[in-house]
Design brief:
single chain, mainly alpha, Arc Repressor Mutant, subunit A, 2 domains, 9 helices, about 60% helix, globular
Length: about 200
């Protein structure tokens, strides 16, 4: 009897979570709208962006040009929200770049201190807005998807360590390890970005 119970538990533990399709999205819109609202609260000054617009943009970017909506799917909730977060983040970065080219001063900036770079001896001639530097670093983190997700959720969605762990379905210790790894991987990318910016 005990052996059967253990087998049942093993079967339950290895049960694969069903994929999400387009028909599952309506049930997730409330959480997605909250994420969009939180992003915009984190990034003031985006006057022409509203949560619904940001959310709609995120959904549109889930579909390739050669796909129908019926062909769009996600492995699980974690993948759905991670991809949506990245899409909304990208929209904010695009808007921030547009503001910069028009000479607007951003109300929300990513400071050097926030990046917690390991090389404390790094010297900066000023305290630049590192938002676009962070974008460059995230492109290089794409080979480490979960690490990139941690950076996305930390800086753009303003989620706590516990919230990120819940979103990515791992423990807080894993999130701390991923953040430590991200800091190492971002170091060179951010330094190169700053050197290029300073040379302009």
């Amino acid at each position: 009897m005990q052996e059967r119970s253990e087998m049942e538990r093993s079967s339950t533990d290895t049960e694969v979570e069903p994929r999400l399709g387009w028909d599952d999205v309506p049930a997730l819109l409330g959480e997605l709208h909250q994420m969009a609202s939180r992003l915009l609260a984190r990034w003031p000054g985006m006057q022409s962006l509203q949560p619904t617009l940001l959310m709609t943009t995120a959904l549109r970017r889930q579909r390739r040009s050669d796909q129908s909506w019926d062909e769009v799917s996600w492995a699980n909730r974690r993948q759905f929200f991670a991809r949506a977060s990245r899409a909304m983040t990208q929209k904010l970065i695009e808007y921030r770049r547009h503001q910069k080219t028009r000479g607007y001063q951003a109300q929300r900036r990513v400071s050097i201190a926030e990046l917690e770079l390991y090389e404390s001896a790094m010297r900066w001639s000023e305290d630049p807005d590192m938002t676009l530097a962070l974008e460059a670093a995230l492109r290089e983190l794409e080979k480490e998807p979960r690490v990139a997700d941690v950076v996305h959720f930390r800086f753009f969605a303003d989620l706590s360590e516990a919230e990120i762990a819940e979103m990515l379905e791992v423990d807080a210790r894993t999130i701390r390890r991923d953040w430590s790894k991200a800091r190492v991987l971002m170091e060179d990318s951010i330094r190169r970005w700053w050197q290029e910016e300073s040379a302009r």
